[in-house]
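Protein in question quoted for reference:
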Amino acid sequence: MSTPDRTNSRNHIRSRRRPSPEAYQAHKKVTIKGYVDRVEIALGAEIVARHRRSYVRGDVVYDPLHYLSLLEKKPGALDQAAPLRGWKLDPAFDTLRRLLEARFGPRGKRDYIQTLRLLEAAQEGPDAKKIGTRPARARPG
C-alpha cells in the first residue's frame, strides 16, 4: 500500500502509521509505504525512514536516531524529547553524559548529543549489532 502524505513540524505522519522521518524532512511531501512487517517513508525515490510496523492501537514507534539532528540545534530539549523516552542505551552512555556535563557544563550536553549522532553512522556499519541500542516505544498520552 502506498499513500501520499506530508510530515508535520514534529516530523510525524498524520495517519495511523506514524514513523519518524529525519528532522530535515519536516513539512515535505512524502509517500508512506505500508508492508506487513514494516512501514517506509519515501521522499521522492529515496527511502528516508523505515520502521517496524506495530499493530497495537495507539502505539507509536520512534527511531531516536532520526531526532538527534534536531536535538543538536535544541540541546535543552534532550531531557523532554518523547522520541528518546524508553531508548535503551548501554549504561556507559549515562556515565559519559554525567562526566561531560560535569566537566563542560551546557557545552557538555551538546557534546553528548554529538556523541549520540555517531550512532547514526554506526547503525549501518559492521558494528551495528554491538552497540546495544533498541528503538523507543511510546504510547501517546
Remarks:
- Strands lie at 2-6, 29-34, 38-43, 46-52, 60-62, 136-138.
